[in-house]
Amino acid sequence: MRQVGDLSASVGYAMKEAASALRSAMDDALRPLDLSVSQYSSLEVLGQRPGISAAELARRTFVTRQSMHGVLTGLAARGLLTRPDAAPQGRALPTELTAAGRDLLRQASRAVAEVESRMVEGLSAEDLRRLHGDLVRCAETLRGGTTTG
What we know:
This protein is mostly helical. It has 6 helices and 2 strands, in the order H-H-H-H-E-E-H-H. A two-stranded antiparallel ribbon has the order 1-2. The chain has a single domain, classed as Winged helix-like DNA-binding domain superfamily/Winged helix DNA-binding domain (Arc Repressor Mutant, subunit A, Orthogonal Bundle). Helix content is 62%, strand content 3%. Helix 1 crosses helix 5 (99-119) and helix 3 crosses helix 4. The radius of gyration is 18 Å and the shape is globular.
């Protein structure tokens, strides 16, 4: 067990440091496409789940509903997604990518994949599998869920 205040042995601090470095590298990779990480994440989720509500999109991209409204407004203004003016029978507004949105998503996904490849280039396939599983278990544990393995 680590000593209180010893950040060099803190798993949480190492995770935060890695997340910060990843975010910075993603920002750099997405900048030429005029996308933020939140915008990219939104396009990625919409590409996988067309018609998802803004509230669910916010949950899946780790932003507030208020922040998501701004993200969606900006992406719609660029012609990257569509949202109807009114929801069908009081339901949430379904959001979908346009052809331009899908094209930009392909470019952004390639850029982010390059960042992730660079991030894990020193890890073996087994190390990568174990790291992924460990991170998933950490998140599940903190959310109060059960873990396997």
